[in-house]
């Protein structure tokens, strides 16, 4: 029994180191495999070629460049008259706007000054006040005061007559703006008709309908039409502003004239 137990002990002593060595070798092989896998180069994913859109890369054109390009494409022969209408129309419109704004007068303040002058210095003092004030309202007051010695009726007639003169001065130049508003689309339509005629001439010469043959003529036709309409729209806005400003000035003149007559009647009744 002791011999059998001794044999088992001897076998255990012999096999335990061998088993341990085997485990160590397996662990070493596992570590080596892991190190090799870690050291292996990582394959990067293949990137698909980037497609760059020419329209995105291209720089955006400025508004001035776009207008210049369209002007050339529309044929300067037909676009130049439309441009001249725009320049002349804007020049007249700006001159009228500046003149009308300078003609605006604070009628309430002027009436108070005239009334105070009449009370303190009489008609001559009131004339000095109106002559020193700019604007159509002051000019009408001056004309009315100059007829004060002839009676209130003459004052009223003088105010009405000179009011018509001042209204004509305010409306001066509007007829030219109206002319350019009508002329610009007509010139654009003329370019349209001429462009279409050129397109049909190209079709007749080629004997075939091809988009490339008629594209040029139709493009000129459309660009000239658009240019004429844009010019007319711009000038129409300025024209309407001038008309509204003139109506406001005329209303002020009428109200102020009635108030002036009332002040003169009151001054005459009081005898001051």
Q: How would you describe the overall organization of this protein?
A:
By secondary structure, this protein is an all-alpha fold. It has helices at 2-39, 54-57, 63-73, 76-102, 107-131, 136-146, 152-170, 174-206, 211-270. Helix 4 packs antiparallel against helix 8 and helix 6 (136-146) packs antiparallel against helix 7. Belongs to the exbB/tolQ family.
List its traits:
mainly alpha, 84% helix
Helix content percent band: over 70%
**Class based on secondary structure composition and strand pairing:** mainly alpha
Strand content: under 5%
Shape: rod-shaped
Helical segment tally? Answer: 9
Determine Rg (CA atoms, Å).
Answer: 48 Å
Mean pLDDT: 76
Oligomer: single chain
Order of helices and strands: HHHHHHHHH
Task: Give start-end ranges of low-pLDDT stretches.
Answer: 1-23, 34-46, 48-59
Number of strands: 0
Tell me the domain tally.
1
Distance between the termini: 161 Å
Largest sheet descriptor:
none
